[in-house]
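User: I'm curious whether this sequence folds into something compact or stays loose and floppy. Could you predict its structure so I can see for myself?
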Amino acid sequence: MILIKLSGKVLNFFIFFKIRFFLLTGLIIFVLPILLITFPFSAKAKYSAIIIDSNNGQVLYSRNANTQRYPASLTKMMTLYLAFDALSEKKIKLNQKLLVSKRAQGQTPSKIGLKAGQKITVENAILAIISKSANDAATVIAESLADSEISFAKKMTKKAKDLGMRRTNFRNATGLPNRRQKTTARDMSILSRALLNDHKKYYHYFSTKKFNYNGRIYENHNQLLTKYRGTDGIKTGYIKASGFNVAASVERGGKRLIGIVFGGKTAKSRDKHLAKLFDNAFKNSKSKAKINKPEFKPISKDIQITKIKNQKKLKRNINSNKIKDDWLIQIGAFLNKSDAYEQIIKASQIFPSGLSDGTVSITPVRSDGNILFRARMKKLPRDKAKKACHILENHGIPCNAISMSGS
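Assistant: Here's the prediction. I'll summarize afterward.
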């Protein structure tokens, strides 16, 4: 009797379990599609991007550009920047041989298999970092330029701050996982531009498609070099926490753009997406830069206003309060205030007769988490504002004529 009762309890237990199993399975089947639609994929959660004009720093596209992300091997861009600094300051030479430590040998891939006690030239270490994204070579550079990789990382962070990379902190020279090592797409665009402007002598290394070392050929991880016209650098990166990252520089028709993408789902989809962003940016730059007015949120009054000429005439125009004289032109939004001012000077030189009566306005605005400096010429007659934009656009300067009553 006891066995029969026990069997009955066991049977009831299995029946109860089976019912709950089917109910739970049904619930999962019903809810899962909703969850997949409602919540973003991990790659989207890691996504950031920015496109800038390398010549003046003007932002042409921006999404989550000021949100901190894991840089992965884009970290090595700063490792190389400091190496180029050392070369420029003659602290090291390209043909100088650097000693490989046990720590460098022990780094996880990607690497070129350096052995402790071996020596590698500075130039080969640079090429290994750019082509293979070699962690062992990056560590050799770091340990040769500082007492340790930790000390070198502190130098990297200091240099980042000096360059204006306000939301970047480095903890190693490689980009290998460290939860405190963070950057932003905006900051990486600043570093990319700095590498171009500060180290023109060494920038050509980033265009290396293949690197031959010890009888083995390493192809550059940056496939955009061969698949997207005009690309001549800079760096790719990947760790699980970051997704697929890339920084790239493209030059076409004398115009150079820098693009950063974080959080790609695959290397191929990342490259395809960045190529599309570049396509759109080049297309828009041929006509005029697209200004998304609703995204701009002024955060203060004009921080710099300079009256140019004809002060008495300007005063009469303001006092008359005529709508026809209440126009402005906007000629870009920039990462740096000095770039915005230079753009206004350039515009004034192109069309001095039309802009001499205006007032310079450089205003900080917040756009998608970034602080940009909006370059404007205010207090212009409608006809001169319209004519100015027509002339400036013919000279390659994006321009919008806006009625101040609606600005």
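Summary: The chain has a mean pLDDT of 83. The chain has two domains: 44-287, 293-406.
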